[in-house]
Amino acid sequence: MSEAYIVAAARTAGGRRGGRLSGWHPADLAGQVLNALLDRADADPALIEDVIMGCVGQAGEQSNNVARNAVLASRLPESVPATSVDRQCGSSQQALHFAAQAVMSGTQDIVIAAGVESMSRVPMGSPSSLARQQGLGHYFSPAMKERYPDIPDFSQFMGAEMMAEKYDLTKDELDRFALLSHERAKRATEAGDFKDEIVPLPVRGIDGAGDGETHDVDEGIRFDATLEGIQNVKLLKEGGRITAATASQICDGASGVMVVNERGLKALGLEPMARIHHLTVIGHDPVIMLEAPIPATERALKKAGMSIDDIDLFEVNEAFAPVPLAWLKTLGADADRLNVNGGAISLGHPLGGSGTKLMTTLLHALKKRNKRYGLQTMCEGGGLANVTIVERL
């Protein structure tokens, strides 16, 4: 079986809801990332055999196979097919897994895995809310209610509160982690660590107008964040531990990676950035749901024949602060290797775009630090988690 390599990785800087990317149609936003990948790989567009794109809110401007629409909004020829993937927050990480499996099998040689989410233009939960507006049913079916009779709905927020309680994480610990996320993102931005991974774009507001500026800095970073300010944010649930400050930020963004096998490397004439060392995906408890990265990582390390200490850098999505903190606590991982440039609490979480976004940041961080192995994982709606282990080359 062939190996899978990553030869290019790029992302937009995150845009806040109603912010500097809100005027971009999501297909055009993703199309800009596809173009950037072609530029970075200096690839003939006709060599791309497929585009697999993660997107959670597949409604409105993100409906009708947004991946194909992004291809048609890019420099790729009409002959390049595309498909859209929904594994909730792990959608573009799963797109990466599908792309890797395609080139490893030898059925394709050069595939782009990507993701996009315009949470300004297609608000979170849009597919479900549109169905309810039309008098149609909720995703929580009668058979699901029979299986989970005491659960009115699956809630990620409640899962985060359950994790904070189960792993005995205090509000102070969560607040301090949120501050660390902003501090690390600030340091990385000011040091220019994101420069090579970000695709600069003209600013477009929600009205489509621009001001001539370029968007190349993650808009959600609070450069003046303080512990006191974070501590004073209102609790989302009376008696709970989670606030908006310890949750990921709503975000507009797109990202992608180009995945190839040995034949693809030869056709492109490139040296790879990294080799995909291992892929895992699991299903877990859909009620606490956000806990899944823990057993997923344990399974991935076992199947890869590795220990947590073999991994040089970790990217664990900061959907809510209890997720990476519980992961650290259970795995016994080195906190200094986790989300070294900040995470979704500071940089934003563009849902379907986050998987390849995190991978892009992980690959560039490994290169900058001259490290070898990186591990990425994220919690996903319904109690799912993907794990990807890469080896920088």
UniProtKB/TrEMBL annotation:
Keywords: Acyltransferase, Transferase. InterPro entries: Thiolase (IPR002155), Thiolase-like (IPR016039), Thiolase_C (IPR020617), Thiolase_CS (IPR020613), Thiolase_N (IPR020616). It comes from the Bacteria. Gene3D superfamilies: 3.40.47.10. GO terms for molecular function: acetyl-CoA C-acetyltransferase activity. Its EC number is 2.3.1.9. Residues 271-392 form the Thiolase C-terminal domain. Coiled coil: none annotated. The keyword Ubl conjugation does not apply. Residues 5-262 form the Thiolase N-terminal domain. SUPFAM superfamilies: Thiolase-like. Pfam families: Thiolase_C, Thiolase_N. PANTHER family: ACETYL-COA C-ACYLTRANSFERASE (PTHR43365:SF1), BLR7806 PROTEIN (PTHR43365). Belongs to the thiolase-like superfamily. Thiolase family. This is Acetyl-CoA acetyltransferase. It comes from Alloalcanivorax balearicus MACL04.
